[in-house]
Design goal:
The chain contains seven helices and two strands. The chain is mostly helical. It has one domain (about 10-200). Helix 1 runs parallel beside helix 3. The protein is globular and about 45 Å long.
């Protein structure tokens, strides 16, 4: 990890990959109660816990780069697909990482990027009906986001973008995967929550 970089920020990368993959696979624009009922929330909670290594009980996982973070999540996504007799094409990962890169882009203001909303939504799902150790872990990283400077966010965004370019080169993709992302913030800037991702064809 580059000198001076917060150890917190790669966790925003892996959480965003798990979050975006879950939304894409379920065709949901958000994990808010507007779109997810109680029965679905239980399934989504289990899905997020299965995909995020750092939420495992007594986990001591530590990421040294964004690639390590999203790679650990995508390895689990691939394992799930293999159990169902499926193989995920490289384009699936490229699509997810392109969206994640957008989530990591910091605004010009002092507000954190939309990845903060991802952690807020993840916390809300995991803390229903009661916040356990996994939800408290997410709450810790969500609170630590405030310590990450804009230049660090830009560095993480560029790191993910480079990974996308490398994946395209490895798979001979001439045209980028085009995905429009719209995110709305439903609560105040002080307590970011209610991430909404709309996939527009």
């Amino acid at each position: 990890m580059p000198s001076g970089t917060s150890p917190t920020y790669p966790y925003c990368s892996d959480s965003s990959v798990a979050y975006v993959h879950t939304l894409l696979s379920l065709r949901l624009p958000s994990l808010s109660s507007t779109y997810v009922d109680n029965s679905e929330r239980k399934h989504i909670k289990a899905e997020l816990l299965a995909l995020l290594p750092f939420l495992a009980p007594r986990s001591t996982v530590r990421y040294e780069s964004a690639r390590e973070a999203w790679g650990s999540v995508w390895e689990r996504v691939g394992a799930q697909a293999a159990e169902e007799g499926e193989t995920l094409p490289p384009e699936a990962l490229i699509k997810v990482l392109e969206i994640v890169g957008n989530l990591l882009h910091p605004p010009i203001t002092l507000d954190p990027p939309h990845a903060a909303l991802v952690l807020a939504d993840t916390y809300r799902v995991l803390s229903t009906p009661k916040a356990g150790a996994d939800a408290k872990k997410v709450a810790f990283y969500r609170a630590a986001i405030g310590q990450i400077g804009r230049q660090e966010w830009l560095r993480l965004e560029r790191e993910v973008q480079r990974d996308v370019e490398m994946l395209r080169a490895e798979n001979y993709q001439e045209e980028p995967v085009r995905e429009s992302v719209q995110i709305s913030q439903e609560q105040s800037r002080v307590q970011p929550s209610g991430a909404k991702i709309e996939l527009l064809d």
